[in-house]
Design goal:
This protein has about 170 residues and is of the alpha+beta class. The chain is about 25% helix and about 15% strand. The chain starts with about 50 loop residues before the first strand and ends with a helix.
Length: about 170
């Protein structure tokens, strides 16, 4: 199959298997019925949260710019923090802070930093900021064990997760 086209979707897809004891996902993607209600992410006080947060802190304080300009992600420092769309983002350096302020959408983790593979399955599951992939200049975070099921399948999983996320945002924010 060419990486730009998806194979035809089966008429009926079996439900995703339950996570294994190790916390890994079953590799087979689950296509959601477009009419079915979407699951809601965990939220404080019943309010919608765009971000998977630790308190008000985005991605456990990791510097989102460092995923793009360092060999590995780095923890940010409180003195280089910025609030953006209700979340506190921390940066390792003043330069990274300024890069983010200039182009925040370039550095934001996809799907509010929820696990990208889980999102492709229609689920909101928290991600480990040390488990990540930068694919087509976008940052994707994963729950432990999920990244290996995502790698190599990005061409099919990313558009599916984007449809689910976009639908969620539309239903929740409008």
């Amino acid at each position: 199959v060419d990486s730009t086209t998806l194979p035809p979707e089966p008429a009926e897809t079996p439900p995703m298997a339950a996570p294994a004891a190790s916390g890994e996902f079953a590799p087979e993607p689950q296509e959601l019925d477009p009419r079915a209600p979407l699951p809601k992410p965990p939220a404080a006080s019943g309010k919608f949260r765009e971000w998977n947060l630790d308190g008000n802190l985005a991605i456990y304080g990791f510097d989102v710019v460092s995923y793009f300009n360092e060999p590995e992600p780095l923890k940010g420092k409180k003195k280089f923090s910025v609030e953006y769309r209700g979340a506190e983002f921390r940066f390792r350096t003043e330069l990274n802070k300024k890069l983010f302020q200039r182009e925040p959408e370039r550095y934001l983790p996809s799907f509010g930093s929820w696990c990208a593979l889980a999102m492709a399955h229609g689920k909101f599951i928290g991600a480990d900021p040390n488990k990540y992939s930068v694919y087509q200049n976008k940052l994707y975070l994963f729950k432990r064990g999920a990244k290996k099921h995502f790698d190599g399948h990005e061409a099919g999983l990313v558009p599916r997760a984007e449809r689910i996320w976009d639908r969620h945002l539309e239903e929740t924010l409008h």
